[in-house]
C-alpha cells in the first residue's frame, strides 16, 4: 500500500479543486478562498488535506480496524501497526523534508488524527502525541544539532514521548519534583525523579523530560531534556491498566541519576515551563480532533445498525421519530464540536486571532466541548443499539470507554473552563 502522505500529495497535485469548481471559480486550485475574496468555510479543507483524509480513512479501515478489538483486549499496540504508521508518513507530517518528514501543515496533522480516531482512538493518540507534542518541541525549540540527530528518527522509525506529569503534578503541572543537576564541568546533567501517566512510553525510544534545574526558583527552574530508552538509570517501572484507550501505553517512568549530555538540553535552562505551556495549547487541538473523530465513529457505527439491521415492532429502530430526533441532535453536536476544532486549527495556523493570546481560548473551547460531545454521543450510541451496543463484540462500548480520557489529559475540563473564564474576564472586567 502506497504511503498515505505520498498518495495525498500526488492526488492533490493532479486533481482540480472540488470546492473551487463547485463555486464556479476558475482560479488555480492552489489559490485560497481569501485570495479570491470569498469567506472561508471552517470545514473547507485544502486539496492536500482532503486527500489525506481519504487516504488515512482507507488505511485505518483496511489495516487498523481488523486489529482494534485484539489490541484493546491485549492492552498492547500492534508492532506492525506502529511500523505502518511510519511507512505511511503519519509520524512526521509537519517535519521538514530535509529531516525525512512530509513538511505539511498543522491542519493535515489534525485531519489524520481525526480520521484515525474514527476507527481507533488508541492509535490516534499515539500519532497525536508524537506529532503535536514531541515533534513540535524539536522543531520549535531544539538546536540544529538536536534536530539533525532526532527528527529523522522521529519521522521514520522512533516513537516519541512527552514526559511532564508526575504523581503530585497533574493539573498543577509546574509542581513537578523531578530534579536536574548540572555537573561541575557543565558537560552533562543528572536527572532524578519519577514521571506518571506518560503516553507512548512503552513504544517510545525518544523522551522529552521536564525537570527542575533550580527548585528554589519554582517553575522558572524547569528545563527540558532529551532522554533515550536504554540510558543507565532510566526505567519504565509500570504500565497502567486503564478504562479506555487500552492499546495506548501509559506508564510510570523512574530516573535514578540518569546522566544526560549537555547538548540534550532543549532550548535554554529555566525556560522549559514556557515550552510546555506553548506546546500543550497545540496538543489540546489534537485531543479535540481525537474526540470529534471518536464521536463520529461511534455515531456512524450506531446509525448503520439502527437504520439497516435492528428492527422492533416491524420497522427499523432508526425510523422511529424519537430515535431520529436523538440521531439528528447528536450529529449537530458533533458538527458543532468540529466547527470549534477547525476554528482552532485555522487560528493556530494564522498565528492566533487574539493579540497577545495566540490560540489559547480557541484550543481550550475545542478540547472542552469535543470531549463533552464524545462522551455524550458514544453513550447514546450504545443505547440506540441495545444489547449489541453493550457487548464487546463490536466497537461501541470501546468508543464510550475511550471517550472518558478526553476530559482528563492535556488539561482537565475544569482547567479548560478556568482558562476560558480568565481570558473572558480579562476582556470584560472593568480596569
TrEMBL record:
It is found in: Mitochondrion matrix. Residues 161-258 form the Acyl-CoA oxidase/dehydrogenase middle domain. Its main location: mitochondrion. One of its GO terms (cellular component) is mitochondrial matrix. Pfam families: Acyl-CoA_dh_1, Acyl-CoA_dh_M, Acyl-CoA_dh_N. InterPro entries: Acyl-CoA_DH_CS (IPR006089), Acyl-CoA_Oxase/DH_mid-dom (IPR006091), Acyl-CoA_Oxase/DH_mid-dom_sf (IPR046373), AcylCo_DH-like_C (IPR036250), AcylCo_DH/oxidase_C (IPR009075), AcylCoA_DH/ox_N (IPR013786), AcylCoA_DH/ox_N_sf (IPR037069), AcylCoA_DH/oxidase_NM_dom_sf (IPR009100). Residues 46-156 form the Acyl-CoA dehydrogenase/oxidase N-terminal domain. Its cofactor is FAD. Keywords: Acetylation, FAD, Fatty acid metabolism, Flavoprotein, Lipid metabolism, Mitochondrion, Oxidoreductase, Phosphoprotein, Transit peptide. Residues 270-422 form the Acyl-CoA dehydrogenase/oxidase C-terminal domain. Its EC number is 1.3.8.5. It catalyses: (2S)-2-methylbutanoyl-CoA + oxidized [electron-transfer flavoprotein] + H(+) = (2E)-2-methylbut-2-enoyl-CoA + reduced [electron-transfer flavoprotein]; hexanoyl-CoA + oxidized [electron-transfer flavoprotein] + H(+) = (2E)-hexenoyl-CoA + reduced [electron-transfer flavoprotein]; valproyl-CoA + oxidized [electron-transfer flavoprotein] + H(+) = (2E)-2-propylpent-2-enoyl-CoA + reduced [electron-transfer flavoprotein]; (2R)-2-methylbutanoyl-CoA + oxidized [electron-transfer flavoprotein] + H(+) = ethylacryloyl-CoA + reduced [electron-transfer flavoprotein]. One of its GO terms (biological process) is carboxylic acid catabolic process. Transmembrane segments: none annotated. GO terms for molecular function: flavin adenine dinucleotide binding; short-chain 2-methyl fatty acyl-CoA dehydrogenase activity. SUPFAM superfamilies: Acyl-CoA dehydrogenase C-terminal domain-like, Acyl-CoA dehydrogenase NM domain-like. Coiled coil: none annotated. Pathway: Lipid metabolism; mitochondrial fatty acid beta-oxidation; Amino-acid degradation; L-isoleucine degradation. It is an enzyme of class 1 (oxidoreductase). Homotetramer. Belongs to the acyl-CoA dehydrogenase family. This is Short/branched chain specific acyl-CoA dehydrogenase, mitochondrial. It comes from Pyronema omphalodes (strain CBS 100304) (Pyronema confluens).
